[in-house]
Design brief:
Blueprint: E1 11-18, H1 25-42, H2 48-55, E2 60-65, H3 68-80, E3 85-90, E4 101-111, H4 112-119, E5 123-124
Parallel strand pairs: 1-2
Antiparallel strand pairs: 1-4, 2-5, 3-4
């Protein structure tokens, strides 16, 4: 499939993690996995971007934001664009001193151009 500018169009999911929390690698992976699955579950099963993602490479990209405010901004922009997305709040049982903490957002599966409109400026992990 191609987009209007003749570049190949593909579906992807972007997982956004806070880097100000200094999570252990395992914790970060778990939070990203929670977000990925939750956003996947929000997708319309008839959506062609989801079907492309399931039948293709299931592309996932991990990026970071510097704060909770930036994480919430990404999430709200994805919601406003009607993209499948999810915000994860960790219960704080193993990190964060027992305080529930927002850790991750996933956007997609959706067409790359729609996801990039929200996440293109974010740094890769």
């Amino acid at each position: 499939m191609t987009s209007d500018d003749d570049r190949p169009k593909y579906s992807k999911q972007v997982i956004v993690l806070r880097n100000d929390l200094n999570m252990r690698k395992g914790k970060m992976i778990a939070q990203g996995a929670h977000a990925s699955l939750a956003a996947f579950m929000e997708a319309d099963p008839e959506d062609t971007a989801l079907l492309d993602w399931l039948n293709g490479a299931s592309t996932k990209i991990a990026v970071s934001v510097p704060s909770e405010e930036a994480l919430l901004d990404v999430y709200e922009r994805a919601r406003a664009a009607s993209l499948p997305c999810a915000l994860v709040t960790d219960a704080g049982r193993t990190e964060f001193g027992g305080v529930p903490t927002r850790t991750a957002v996933a956007i997609g599966p959706a067409w790359s151009d729609a996801v990039d409109a929200i996440t293109a400026e974010l740094k890769l992990l």
